[in-house]
Target: Congested-like trachea protein
Amino acid sequence: MSEKSSPIKYFLSGGFGGVCTVLSGHPMDTIKVRLQTMPLPKPGETVLYKGTWDCFKKTVQLEGFRGLYKGMSAPLTGVAPIFAISFFGFGLGKKLIKSDEDQVLTKTELFAAGAFSGVFTTSIMAPGERIKCLLQIQQGANAPQKYKGMVDCARQLYAEGGIRSIYKGSVATILRDVPASGMYFMTYEWIKEVLVPEDASNKLKMVATIVAGGCAGIANWLVGMPADVLKSRLQTAPEGTYPNGMRDVFKQLMEREGPLALYKGVTPVMIRAFPANAACFVGFELAINFLDWVAPNL
Model:
């Protein structure tokens, strides 16, 4: 990332990178949420989805390829400001940590700047995630659909429990995003540093961006996956299911399914993580280079 670029350029370029992320990665996100939230089979019943491929196949058979893009309106609407704020927070975090413009940040300082960015995004991320997950778990093309879309879902949630219902799962979201964002940005900067010599060609820089962005996405989810499972279950559960919030979700999950359940849906996440986040950082780097060219003083 350009060390001379302002947080404003990080904001604008991050928004463009976020759109690239959603367009490339949403189908695997839908499968992840369905695997995370599928009900446990009763005695004598078969499991709803046997795994990633089975979930993908059944979704396409019942709902067509459009079923893989269910709930995309919510993250696509919110993703530009979410990623914009995330990258802005990272750029601002780096500025706050630096004592002078030429200081090279340590890996710990990069992690801290990334974690700082995770705090910024929760106000938009939490309601967007709540709506997205509720739309994604609606099964089948012919089955009754409770929510007709993003706006209808938000309206019904507000009618049922006010703004508190829309923001259900905010604590889980911030517990996921703060450490995961720190790992995300630190991994990207570290791998770019390793792969790109000072005299690197533009082609090598682009390849390094793809590799570093993809690896950053994987590192992000390795850290954030357990909190994401808890968040998905809390946000899609009927009201009153978990009176004590995340504590009840965690307790029930441990009792019924064990620690491995904290990584339910990890396969589609990892399949999605590399290309989606590679696309994000390619979009970000292209946008910030363009802004540095057209508005060097911004």
